[in-house]
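quick one
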Amino acid sequence: MFSSLSDSLDKTFRNLRGVGKISEKNITDALREIRVALLEADVEYLVAKEFIAHVKEKAVGAEVLKSIKPGEQIVKIFHDELAELLGGDQVPLQLDGSGRILLCGLNGAGKTTTAGKLAMRLKREGKKPLLIACDLYRPAAIDQLATVGKQVDVPVYTPDASETDVVKVAREALTWAETQNGDVLIFDTAGRQEIDERLVEELKRLHAFLDPQETLLVADAATGQGAVSVAKHFDEAVGITGIILTKLDGDARGGAALSMRSVTGKPIKYAGEGEKLDQLFEFHPDRMADRILGMGDVVGMVEQVAGRIDEKDAMKSMERMASGKFDFYDFLDQMKMISKLGDMKGLMGLIPGFNKIKKQIPDAAFDPKRMKRTEAIVLSMTPDERRRPEIIKPSRRKRIAAGSGVTIIEVNRLLKQFGDMRKMMKSPKKMQKMMGQMGGMP
Ligand code: GDP
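structure w/ guanosine-5'-diphosphate:
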């Protein structure tokens, strides 16, 4: 998401920074390029036009042009306006009353998945969420919510498949909820391929009955301006309180995220960035602006990593490395930790400056298949070999290759990599250099 917009912005701003003295014409030209980039990213025409006008008004101010680093100043103005366009401050969920959340949206937008993700987040925050299936059109949808609920260990209310009255289901679910000791109720509703009268009428009835604290539209970012018009329709029908934008991990152009707030006036509260149930994140406009401008989102990265690996395991592994006692058992543990991180390339995109070098890193470097092969090699070693890899002479290498179904070349490569890692760990200077290089990425 956003990568082509980010590239265009990067190019334009690099040109602007390269100019010794900036004139009003330089700014106008740069903003024209940016406007085209925004439209190409599927940002709504009027939103793009107004946005550019705002930036221009601030950027041609006398102080900016006379300042020592006008290019930098303009980037800052652009960044702040972008964060404003995305909604300004993060808007948290309001759950201090009835705690009822109604999720709505079209089929396939990611409602059911998001219901599970939201339940998981709220649980981590110390709440006791309950999931309630109100999609009476597709029995599969009820089963899907039940499965998701099991995965996140949250109770699910599943109505009888013959039930047709959604308000009756909601009423019975409320009675059930009282026995469950929950404090947040997440209602998953029926969707359609597109908005139709029957869907809207049913949603209106359910909304009127539940009087939810939050009515959140789940919208697929990949549908671009379509997502924005869906949001407008649902808002007119029931009055949404916020938006959850899904599939921000995909390669859509990002226009939905940029136009959504401005067109609907409703905040984007969360962003879905993957199919896994822990891949739902609070939407922070300023951090998103950082990301779009290639400035990274380190806070976001730490949050994503924190939920997925055990801090104790990570510490243990670091200690083993520092003590020089690193063997193939530790190596295997580390690999498992890395694989839990999931989408490594996406994660690394949150590192400042990484977007610029991302293309140079081969996809194979993050290929789960390759990781599996490496794991197979280690698993084909005997316990003694794992502890003392120096005993792995050619005949053992042949056996390991045959046992793991790879070539001897791959076994040799792994042993060489492992040897290099060990050497590096034994040399504090080299470790320091490596850490320094990591900290000083462009
Ligand atoms: P619903 O019809 O609105 O309930 O949609 P589902 O929850 O069944 O989701 C439809 C598809 O989108 C499923 O394959 C989900 O795994 C996928 N999905 C949902 N959210 C995301 C997301 O944030 N990123 C990605 N890549 N896929 C998602």
